[in-house]
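Subject: Sanity check before I submit

Could someone independently write out the structure tokens for this chain? I want to compare against mine line by line before I put it in a report. The sequence has 72 residues.
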Amino acid sequence: MGQTIRSVRKTKGMSQEVLSGFAGIARTHLTMIECGTKQANFSTICKIAEAFDMRPSELVRKMEEAEEKRDK
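---
Independent answer below. Compare away.
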């Protein structure tokens, strides 16, 4: 999950500070999610997806695709 969020964030040219501000979460919280030390709940995933200007289902789909690639 965290790697996908980091990847999308970097693709969109956003810093952690900017993304966390748009999502309304603490930057430290985002850092922990990206590092995998904390799991985001659905509400947080929705906030992050909205900050990326995408639907939560799109973000979850990207997470699923990344997981499938890792499993191969």
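---
OP: Matches mine. For the report I'm noting this point. The chain has five helices and no strands.
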